[in-house]
Amino acid sequence: MRRVSLALVIMLLAAAAAHAQTRGLSPTDYYRMTFVGNTEISPTGDLVAFVVTTINEEDNKRHREIWLQRLHDGRPEGELFRFTDPTEESTNPHWSPDGTILSFTSRRGEDKNNVWFMHVTAPGGEAYHIEGVDAAPTWSPDGQWIAFTRAPKDEDEEDDEAEDRREGWIAPDAISHTLDPSRFDGRVITSRRYKRDGTQTLLPDPATRDKSQLFVVAAAGGEPRQLTDMPFNVRGIDWIPNGNAIIFGGNPLEDDEWNQENTQELYAVTVDGGDPRVLTSNPGSETGADISPNGRQLAFVWSLARDVQPDIMVVDLNADGSFAGEPRMLTGEWDLIPGSPEWTRNGRALRFVAGVGGDRHLFEVSTRDGEVRQITHGDRRVGSLTTTSDGRYLAYTSTDVQHPAEFFVSRADGSNEVRITSFNDTWLAEVTLMPAERLSWHVADGTEVEGWVIKPVGWESGRTYPMILKIHGGPYGAYGNTFFQTFHVLSAAGFYVLYTNPRGSTGYGHDFQFATRGAWGEVDSEDYLGGVAAAVEKYSDIDPDRVGVSGGSYGGYMTNWLTATSDRFAAAVTSRSITSWEIMYATSDAGGLMEHAFFGPPWEQRERYRRLSPISHVENVTAPTLIIHSENDFRTPMPNGEDWFMALQRRHVPVEFVRYPRSSHGLSRGGEPWLLVDRLERIRSWFSHWLIEESRTTLP
How far is it, in rounded angstroms, from Cα 604 to Cα 47? Predict the structure, then answer.
């Protein structure tokens, strides 16, 4: 009997252990996640600074600190350690040229200057200010000067507490008048730029705000000197290595609300004063400028127009920063989108990060022959990349389908990669995350489309399962080999998850990206429905009658569109969606996107705007739909959600409308933690009800 009992106990323990190991990801696991970013390797390569973000569930906030890891020959030496005060928020680390000082941003008490500095050569140092520096610093290569950009300050400016809080609420060029200015607390708007997603209040009139300008101050501190007085915001500064001049960017037509062209230019100004010189000219925008280590060449990204492939350009420089010839194109034969370039130490190549299919990797292009080669590899996405001043080592973050981003160091050629952080390993060991399996199919014109499938946690042969099609935003974006909590929450709830990169996605070349222009929804519907058919064919245990669809932003638009133009889906969750392109054009802070995508504004393309609007086909919707929208979403504003809700209600389609307060378009990525977690649970529970629980009650 004892032997039988012991065997029974062992069996029960084994069963319990197996059950514990099959727990999938829950919405509340978000509170346990740690996020790593803003990686900055020191010029000498002996230290790496990075930002660690954790979630404080009780306070419903994120907490950011700067941590350091010592390195020796590109390998970790000792334990990583917290560098900034754990009771304060700190981010945005930057090294001095000699690697002895780290600057960072931190709001502390009543101090209005949030730019701080700390010595790293001795323990126990205190954060301090450098007189005259009150914006993110960029040191000169010799460490003698600090440059930064900010709006000029009026010496007679009153204390912030006494400022008129309604400054800029009335446009300076307004014609109408009020009877009593002291009583009027509304807005008088003449500019289209009166709101921006992520800013919960309406913006002041642009004409009432000073433009950011370029300043320099001695590295030891002092009175900053203003070097520019441009009619636009100065951005993207970089020092000439001799320290005599600075190159910067700016858009001279940024206040022309009718300008739809790429008009960002590059300029140079000497440190001892003088008028800035424009280096480039239209057409096209020049961004991401980086000066070679010897100061003789400049690299930048040139974008001729919205629908033209960006390319990396190189031009020779004179000692004062002026061009010594015509720029030449390096990536003209490369059909992907390069990120901002960074010179290798020997000046023979440029490095940049770019999306390639479902991955994002580091690439290198030769300045001699334009040959592009890939440095990092694998089914993953790398980012936040920095290099030591001698070019020997790289530091970057890396994430894949089953792992949130952690921080890595490798040699310059990508070899000897070492993972430095493991913040998420403990909680990841307690859950089961299913891997992603690649799936591809062809559409009618022969184009291959790529997607991925994640199986349900605890998958068993012989059972049938529902599936959710997830649709990314953009449309100029891409899913792929990165960690998406939503996918794993749905997998844990018993769903197959299919996510795809249809035509319109980035990472597959220029023609693929712009294949849907003028026909959003009409063209890519074939890709999504083809993906569903391919998944059902490959995975015979997917129940074709229990397929749901969900997405946000453009993905919300496509969710609405697919449920209105097909009968393929049994349930839907649409987030920050679009129902009418005319409403979208009139209310969004990104109206220019539609003018390009639809070949003009609504009054010139009325039939196209209405034909491609889901509301024009809403009478066909039968799928029970959960609508999620944020109160302060100025990218795809609330009237879209209201429009869809009222139409489905009137047609007696099962529908719920969740409106999240204090939230913008980015709720699913950076909203209040509690609201973000609540959103995950609502998506899970809605699909569970209609595709799992409801199906059980209807079985014979």
Answer: 57
Largest CA distance in the chain: 97
What is d(CA 268, CA 20) in angstroms, rounded to the nearest whole number?
62
Pairing relationship of beta strands 465-471 and 542-552 according to DSSP bridges: parallel
397 DSSP β-pair partners: 383, 407
Check residue 306 and give its pLDDT.
Answer: 85
Query: At residue 648, what is the residue type?
Result: L
Rounded to whole angstroms, how far apart are CA atoms 554 and 153? 41
**C-beta of residue 452 within 8 angstroms of C-beta of residue 438:** yes
Which amino acid would we find at residue 531?
G
Q: What letter would DSSP give residue 691?
A: I
Residue type, 145: W
> Do 106 and 118 touch, CB atoms closer than 8 A?
no
User: How large is the C-alpha radius of gyration of the chain?
Assistant: 27
pTM value is 0.92
What lies within 8 Å, CB to CB, of 165 at 6+ separation is none
3-state secondary structure of 63: strand
Alpha carbon 366 to its chain's center: 28
For strands 372-374 and 75-76, give the pairing: unpaired
Closest by Cα among 140, 151, 265, 137 to 213: 151
Between CA 574 and CA 117 the distance in angstroms is 45
**CATH for 432-698, among 2.160.20.10, 3.90.226.10, 3.20.20.80, 3.40.50.1820?**
3.40.50.1820
Token representation of residue 510:
């220029």
Note whether 147 and 216 are within 8 A (CB).
yes
- CA angle 180/169/197 to nearest 5° reads 150
pLDDT in tens, 134-186: 999 999 999 999 999 999 986 555 444 445 678 899 999 999 999 988 899 89
How many Cα atoms occupy the beta-carbon half-sphere of 264 within 13 Å? 19
Residues 529-550 have pLDDT tens digits of: 999 999 999 999 999 999 999 9
Tell me: the pLDDT tens digits for 8-46?
Answer: 444 444 444 444 456 999 999 999 999 999 999 999 899
For the domain made up of 131-152+211-375, the CATH class stated in words is: mainly beta
Q: Give domain limits for the chain.
A: 25-129+384-431, 131-152+211-375, 162-209, 432-698
C-alpha torsion angle, residues 672, 674, 675, 676 (rounded to 10): 80
Which residues in the chain land under pLDDT 50? 1-4, 6-20, 158-162, 699-700
Q: Which two tokens stand for residue 682?
A: 């609502």
